């Protein structure tokens, strides 16, 4: 097991090299300079992420849509990371893709959309901390998806005060600034593949 070494500064930080040394299978995020292990997820998590990927992909144009696993440095310098997150699904508009991005490394900035699919053991406080961090770092929209409740909570950075719009099963999600013309039935996000229907 590789140990992550924190820098000795007034504010805790970790280096990108320390994170990369953990290996390609390490599932970690950095929040306020603290390295946090990401919990394993169940099948419904992957069903929801896969559904969202398929539903959003036709609306992405030349933008980049990524499933779980891409680490975003959120603008932190690689030598002193304070906040680095791994959304369950993310989208970057084509015009905002960083030309300096080395594709063998994490993305240096923040996405335009970050989606978090919530597991039953995640605390409300931890979820809200992440939402605030995403919005503070320039993410335009954050979608928090609750598979058990069949709800999607949409946070938009432009909206002041930062209010949440809650979509429930049977309603249609819209995000005109990111995906003009898209109307996404919430039921489609939670639909089970035929092989899982019993």
Give the amount of beta strand, in percent: 15-25%
Count of structural domains:
1
The number of helices is 4
Indicate the CATH architecture. Alpha-Beta Complex
Rough outline: globular
The total strand number stands at 10
Strand arrangement in the largest pleated sheet: 3-4-5-6-7-8
Helical residue percent band? 10-25%
- What is the typical, i.e. mean, pLDDT? 90
Topology as a string of helices (H) and strands (E) = HEEHEEEHEEEEEH
Specify the structural class. alpha+beta
CA radius of gyration: 17 Å
What profile does the largest beta sheet have?
Answer: 6 strands, mixed
CATH topology: tt1808, chain A
List low-pLDDT spans. Answer: 1-9
CATH superfamily (homologous) name: tt1808, chain A
The first-level CATH class name? Alpha Beta
Q: Could you state the oligomeric state of the chains shown?
A: single chain
Overview of the structural elements:
This protein is α+β, with helices and mostly antiparallel strands and 198 residues long. The protein has one domain (41-193): tt1808, chain A, CATH 3.90.1570. The chain is built from 4 helices and 10 strands. The chain has helices at 16-20, 43-56, 124-136, 186-190, and strands spanning 28-31, 34-37, 64-67, 89-92, 113-117, 141-146, 151-156, 164-168, 172-173, 184-185. It is globular and about 45 Å long. The N and C termini lie far apart (41 Å). The model is unreliable at 1-9 (pLDDT under 50).
